[in-house]
């Protein structure tokens, strides 16, 4: 099945690359997303914990995030059809190739059971993302592309040094599979392990969009077409998280685990602080949503730093965040087409001009605020309870103060978009798409439903991941 999947992907990639018109590019791309979804369902129902092609394993962690990507990506593809309606055939073909390559490379990250293989596929995501960032071929997009390639390559190189340090720490160990590393780290040199952990966390932060290399994600999302930003802020961020989480699972079996959790608490609260500061300062909605990602991934790291139920909260938070952020980014694409700008001080009255789109923004705001019934309410409540139970009073105090600032800023910015009179004289009221809006309602609605009812299958999957700790 896996070999057939790879052959089908190769055939579809070739077909998209050779398609002479938009219709065939659209048809072959749609077929790819259908195959992705079918393969994700197969991986969940038929292949739990089984190996494929030596370097890949269909475990609960990979299949959970693969299914999430397989749900979001087709919606991004449909939104892109409406957003890129004036592109030439060549530009349209390159854009869809980049989207498909990004989906393929993050899927490789999700299922890789070897630290070196994870590193290879994560580096490959840089090339696919760079194609999306440079899509507009402007001076600004060129600058963002070079920044993204340079900083991401530096980050991935730093992570590679960490992997080498990890292999050095586990003396006498053959191979870099995570299961073997987990077995070997119990007797590893603690100093080497600490250095490896810091290097890998720093390197992978460029993909997770957390401190210290978060800036590269902000620039990439700002320059890329907005529907593509929805995939970058969810699938790519999740790939960075999965890459790091597998290393976290290895460290859990070592004697530096308590130290590593303290590092994650510090890194997490710094990321939340950065998100809070720059949410206040930015005047562009695409940057605004990206800094929200930095803040939310900071909460995820705090959950990992707590351990136990905090890890459950981290995984659940990332799942809900992906649904919310993908829906909001795609609705923001419609806002951009509607007003012709993303500058906050020029936007307003959106709810009256386009009530359906305004409804998506309002639902997304409730979700990001972590108000019931948002699924983020559940995860953040667990995180705060873990901080209290662990006696992390300094982190808890900072977290509460920063969350207050973030809640105020989110309300002020989004409510201004919905209700403030617009400063623009002309708006394009005909550039809306009700089907795309309905799909965005579906994604954000799922995130809100998860705050009330957690489906048994999702809970079992997360508990199966935790069983490995």
Task: Summarize this structure briefly.
The protein is mainly α and 469 residues long. It has 19 helices and two strands.
Defining traits:
2 domains, mainly alpha, two-stranded antiparallel sheet, 1% strand
Description:
Helix 12 runs antiparallel to helix 13 and helix 13 packs antiparallel against helix 16. This protein starts with a helix and ends with a helix. A two-stranded antiparallel sheet has the order 1-2. The longest helix has 31 residues. It has 19 helices and two strands. The chain folds into two domains: 255 residues, no CATH class; 214 residues, no CATH class. The protein is mainly α and 469 residues long. It is globular, with a radius of gyration of 21 Å.
